[in-house]
Amino acid sequence: MIAANQVVDAASPAATRAARVGFFMAGFGLAIWAPLVPYVRARIEMSDAVFGTLLLCIGLGSLTWMPLSGLLVARRGIRPVILFSVALLALSLTGMALTESLWILALALFCFGGSLGVIDVVFNIQGVMIERDTGKRHMSNFHGMFSLGSICGALALTVALTLGLPPAVGTLLMVALIVLANLAVSSGFLRDRAPAGGVAFVRPSAAVLLVGGLCFIVYLAEGAVLDWSALYLTETKALETAKGGLGYASFALMVTVGRFAGGPVVNALGTARTIAYGGLLAAVGIALTLITAHWGWALLGYGLCGMGCANVSPVLISSLSRQQQMPVNQAITAATTIGFAGVLAGPALIGLIAHFASLTLAFALLAVLLMGLVLGSRRFSE
Length: 382
What we know:
Blueprint: H1 13-31, H2 33-43, H3 48-65, H4 69-76, H5 78-98, H6 102-134, H7 139-162, H8 167-184, H9 206-236, H10 246-260, H11 262-291, H12 295-309, H13 312-319, H14 328-356, H15 359-376
Helix pairs in contact: 1-6, 1-7, 1-8, 3-6, 4-5, 4-14, 5-6, 5-8, 6-14, 7-8, 7-10, 7-13, 9-10, 9-12, 9-13, 9-14, 9-15, 10-12, 11-12, 11-13, 11-15, 14-15
């Protein structure tokens, strides 16, 4: 066992193991919110409009805190930032499960989004440092652990609630699991400060902006499928309302499978072709959902989209270790923040286009954007 005060090298198995567990538990923590939503709505009286506004607190928290992640890592090191963020995540989930105050719920959601945003950026920084020191590609596997954690988190709390546990008790059990798992591997969190960068903000270079913009497209697609695929399937493909969630389930399942299979694929194709083929496959998947008349083929289309998107963001983040214009931690912070904005903007843009034109046109434009990944991939030849 590694001593608690020993500095861990990024190339050590302990660092890789800690990153895998950390990514898994980050996804696990994110997914706990979904099963809690009906109970929160029942406990705190509010209109749909108020609840929609509250949900913005999650995104605002992430976008407010994510830009500070690089600075925190540069000044404090990875390990203390992760442990603090996990503690804040635990407190925010506890507050969301217990409070009867609208204002405390808003604060808890803000901290929930903020802590997860920082965790996401900092684990990506650790992942890139591991890849740099080991000379091996790990990011697809790391992001696959996040996807698997999201599935397991939602299932775990759902099972606990189904067995009759009160929401507060079930949530506290999940919180305890998150904290204990992170503490168990905390010796593998890198404690050395990331190189350079003591300033809060660095103007992103063109290469970093390109990575952020392409991540934006991938995350926009994920947000669009998450929030609009069910409606599209039930309204245009005659799928039963109760089965509307199968669209995103197909997408998420293939993202997870694609990421765990991603190491050999990325090694064989390289960064540029992984991005290009991924964007092409994702665009074809969305196109299939538009041209088919049967919902079964549409589900296949969403699955193809997920498979195409699966390894694009991991290889894009990995590529930042090879740029020289910015400190790596600041570059990852900037690109991840830009990309995450796509999760928030995607559903809104799809809704706006659907309102003034149609949902079909909105998804068609999404397919065009995904084709943009093919063009952008040319800058990543190795």
